[in-house]
């Protein structure tokens, strides 16, 4: 269900490279949530780093929503750059498996597979 890769890059460099990778593959970055900073700013003793990139391709999103509007709650896709025990990682929850749990519509699964292929390419390119 998860796709996670290790990278030798720093957290900062992996974040920069992921954003570039997303854009180069025809998607946009809607927002970046820096969970590590947010937690530390709230007084939580959180040692790791974690940025969640909300990524979207409007054509693919429109296809999903035209099939089942309720799936707006599963959009946009999220790809994370994070640290874990001194290692930098990039990962995502596979869209096809996630949406398959929410719908059995073959048209939706086709779109989810296309999105999954692209998001995995983004991760691999940023790695």
Overview of this protein structure:
There is one protein chain. The protein is α+β, with helices and mostly antiparallel strands and 127 residues long. It has a single domain (2-126), classed as TATA-Binding Protein (2-Layer Sandwich), CATH 3.30.310.70. The protein contains five helices and five strands, in the order βαβαβαββαα. α1 (11-24) packs across α5 (106-126), α3 packs antiparallel against α5 and α4 (95-102) runs antiparallel to α5. The longest helix has 21 residues, at 106-126. It is globular. The mean pLDDT is 96.
Oligomer: single chain
Q: What is the molecular shape?
A: globular
| Fraction of residues in helix | 40-55%
Query: In CATH terms, what is the architecture?
Result: 2-Layer Sandwich
Radius of gyration from CA coordinates: 15 Å
| Run of helices and strands | EHEHEHEEHH
Number of structurally distinct domains: 1
How does the helix and strand content classify structurally? Answer: alpha+beta
| CATH C-level class | Alpha Beta
- Main sheet strand line-up: 1-5-4-3-2
Main beta sheet: 5 strands, antiparallel
Q: How many alpha or pi helices?
A: 5
The separation of the N and C termini measures 19 Å
| DSSP summary, beta strand count | 5
List unreliable stretches of 5+ residues.
Answer: none
């Amino acid at each position: 269900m998860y796709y996670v890769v290790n990278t030798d890059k720093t957290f900062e460099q992996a974040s920069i490279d992921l954003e570039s990778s997303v854009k180069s593959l025809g998607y946009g970055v809607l927002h970046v949530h820096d969970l590590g900073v947010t937690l530390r700013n709230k007084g939580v003793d959180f040692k790791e780093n974690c940025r969640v990139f909300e990524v979207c391709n409007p054509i693919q999103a429109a296809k999903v929503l035209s099939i089942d509007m309720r799936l707006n709650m599963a959009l946009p896709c999220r790809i994370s750059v994070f640290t874990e025990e001194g290692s930098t990682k990039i990962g995502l929850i596979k869209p096809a498996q996630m949406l398959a749990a929410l719908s059995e519509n073959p048209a939706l699964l086709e779109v989810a597979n296309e999105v999954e292929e692209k998001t995995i390419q983004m991760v691999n390119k940023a790695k």
